[in-house]
Amino acid sequence: MAGYDPCMEYYVEAYLNTGEVQEALHARTNTNWLACPRTSVPFHYTPGPVSVVPTIRRLVERGLSIWVYSGDLDSTCSITSTRYSVKDLNLPVTTPWRAWYTPDFEYEGGFTFASVRGAGHLVPSYQPERALVLLYSFLKGRLPPG
């Protein structure tokens, strides 16, 4: 799949284990640093009841332009969960779905939802050009080109 690199997480480890990087970060040298410890520290994640929907709703009500986007390959924050959250805002759609590089919707009050095709959790890492178009469009106050 174009734009997807299953080894990407190991690049961070290789970078953090470079002597000059460790020195620049004032980190212990001669240490094997991990991007996310897999065995040395147990990781227990329990989803909580916390939701950003009320905060986004308040920001939209105060007239701020809010764009929410998800990569369609994101296994951390799935696009389905993002769509459910957007639906919970109960905002009327002002611009229906249309393709640019990926689908997006514009809602009442300056709220926009976009998905980025071929992107994982860190959209700019997976799809830098599409992320740049999305950011540029947000800064210009326009939907991405169709």
Task: Provide an overview of this structure.
The protein has 146 residues and is of the alpha+beta class. The chain has two domains: 8-41, no CATH class; 53-140, 3-Layer(aba) Sandwich (Rossmann fold). The protein is 35% helix and 16% strand. The protein is elongated. The mean pLDDT is 78. One of its GO terms (molecular function) is serine-type carboxypeptidase activity. InterPro entries: AB_hydrolase_fold, Peptidase_S10, Ser_caboxypep_his_AS. Pfam families: Peptidase_S10. Belongs to the peptidase S10 family.
The proportion of strand residues reads: 15-25%
Distance between the termini: 23 Å
Shape: elongated
CATH architecture of the largest domain: 3-Layer(aba) Sandwich
Structural class: alpha+beta
- The strand count comes to 4
The rounded Rg comes to: 19 Å
Number of domains: 2
CATH-defined fold name of the largest domain: Rossmann fold
Secondary-structure element order, N to C: HHHEHEEEHH
- Poorly predicted parts: none
Strands across the major sheet, in which order? 1-4-3-2
CATH class of the largest domain: Alpha Beta
Please outline the major beta sheet: 4 strands, mixed
Helix-residue proportion: 25-40%
How many alpha or pi helices? 6
Mean pLDDT figure: 78
